[in-house]
Amino acid sequence: MRRLHLLLITVLFLLGGCAGEADHNVLFIGNSYTHTNDMPAMVRKIADANNVTIKTTMIAPGGAFLDEHVRNPDVVNALRSGDYDTVVFQEQSVAPSFAEFANGRTKPAASELTAIAAETGTRVIWFQTWGHLNGFPGVGHDGYDTMQSAIIGTYDEIGRANGGSVARVGERWRRMLNSGQNIGLYSLDGTHPSPAGSYVAAIEITDTIVMVPIEVAPAVDGVDETVAAAILST
To answer: Which domain holds residue 217?
Structure first.
């Protein structure tokens, strides 16, 4: 009887431990486009509202490029730890819009990071970013549209070459800008996201992580229910 009692305690303990586990354990690798407004926290809140538990860890120093992450031991060790089922990679904002840079640095770094993630079977998601509000004339983009198109093209090429999923944040961003809803997605510098801009990223990335359509868009700091619903439906 005592052995049976101990067995029941052990089973209940194990079941309790399983109940506390997250559905997804996600590592975010990027820079300020990822850490501004604590976008991964928005992902957690959106997931919670849709009955999915996501645990997040972030390595996102300002201005970092993918090829700098390849040389960052914190990134490499995190990828090799086996602690994460999913990693979200985000390149510096201008790099994917400039073909010479994208071909010479972004794409090789993406391949290296993919290979490291593959060592532990970690699923890869590519965080497709948005163009600057006024483009980036220094690399030939006099406005938003051409810059956005170039970014989309580069992330598509990375996805085809390396596998993984592309979280099409930039494409949803473009739809929002063209929707006529007048929801400000940029911060004052015309490059970084406002809270609503970060919410666009969070919705698209959450959808890509869980692989089913997000149905509930909760309010978060800086984004009320009306704006959240508009972003979800666009």
So the answer is: 23-233
Burial (CB < 10 A; 0-12, 13-18, 19+), residue 77, is: exposed
- For residue 54, CA distances in Å to 49, 84, 164 come to 11, 11, 19
User: Residue 12: helix, strand or coil by DSSP?
Assistant: helix
Q: Using alpha carbons, select from 50, 57, 130 the residue that is nearest to residue 91.
A: 130
Place of tokens 């810059």: 147
Amino acid at 2: R
Residue 162, pLDDT > 60, answer: yes
Predicted confidence (pLDDT) per residue in 108-138, tens digit = 999 999 999 999 999 999 999 999 999 999 9
Identify which has the larger pLDDT, 75 or 21. 75
> Helix, strand or coil for residue 86?
strand
Instruction: Assign residue 93 the CATH number of its domain.
Output: 3.40.50.1110
User: CA 136, CA 141: separation in Å to the nearest integer?
Assistant: 5
Residue 19 in tokens: 């109940």
